[in-house]
Amino acid sequence: MFEEQIIRTIVDLGMIVIALGGGGIPVIARDAFTVDGCEAVIDKDRASALLASGLGVDLFIISTDAEQVYVDFKKPSQRGIRHATADEMQAHLDAGQFPPGSMGPKVQSALRFLRAGGTKVIITSYEHLTDALDDKAGTHITPSALCPANTAGSTAPTSTQQKFSHVIESQQFTVPP
Q1: Domain range for residue 83?
Q2: Pairing outcome for strands 34-37 and 69-71
Q3: Within a domain: residue 176?
Q4: Rounded to whole angstroms, how far apart are CA atoms 33 and 45?
Q5: pLDDT value at position 84?
Q6: Is the predicted pLDDT of residue 138 greater than 80, yes or no?
Q7: Measured between alpha carbons, how far is 152 from 57 in angstroms, rounded to an integer?
Q8: Strand pairing of 59-64 and 166-170?
Q9: Which of 52, 124, 145, 146 is the most buried (most CB within 10 A)?
Q10: 19-50: per-residue pLDDT in tens?
Q11: For the chain, where are the alpha helices, taking DSSP H only?
Q12: Beta strand 79-81 with 69-71: parallel, antiparallel or unpaired?
């Protein structure tokens, strides 16, 4: 992917990259020199997971409007998930806990990233992002038997003071006045 090479170069230069923001024209490659436009929805969660995997980052952060992922969402038995393995999240997904149009695509994208060798995923709101990086907020998902070992041998950071490679995907972003 040509765009991935450009993004990797910019990241390697220490610059912040904003990518996959939507607005592009979906196309299908017919051959090496021909693309045709098509009707499609580009899912930013999935596209971001693919980019994070392609760049080989340690930590994939999905910013959403909830502080963490919940099971039994909006029911009296609702409870947040602070730490889980990919296997545990897959079991919740299979049980219908994360519907499409809600947390479903985010959890599926997290699992794809981990299965591709990622080290850790955090799902949280931008208001809780700093605390999530310090393991005080958010849902932290780590590999399990479903996921191959990370061949890079790196571990996710435990403090905002540590340097790490990451991708942040955000469905919403509001700049305060």
Answers
A1: 2-170
A2: unpaired
A3: no
A4: 28
A5: 97
A6: yes
A7: 9
A8: parallel
A9: 52
A10: 776 666 778 888 888 888 888 777 788 888 98
A11: 2-12, 44-55, 86-94, 104-115, 129-133
A12: antiparallel
What is the Cα–Cα distance from 140 to 85, expressed in whole angstroms?
8
Tokens of 168: 């942040």
C-beta of residue 91 within 8 angstroms of C-beta of residue 111: no
* Residue 177 included in any domain: no
- Best CA proximity match to 108, nearest among 66, 149, 62: 62
3-class DSSP state for residue 6? helix
pLDDT higher than 60, residue 158: no
Residues in contact with 97: Cβ distance below 8 Å, sequence separation at least 6, in sequence order: 71, 72, 73, 103
Q: The whole model's pTM is what?
A: 0.78
Average pLDDT in the 158-164 region? Answer: 44
Q: Residue 69 maps to which CATH number?
A: 3.40.1160.10
Task: Return the residue matching tokens 């990797």.
Answer: 8
- Residue 175: inside a domain: no
C-beta contacts of 94-101 below 8 A and 24+ residues apart: 97/71, 97/72, 97/73, 98/69
In a domain, 154, yes or no: yes
Q: What tens digit of pLDDT does each residue of 72-130 get?
A: 999 999 999 999 999 999 999 999 999 988 899 999 999 999 999 999 999 999 899 99
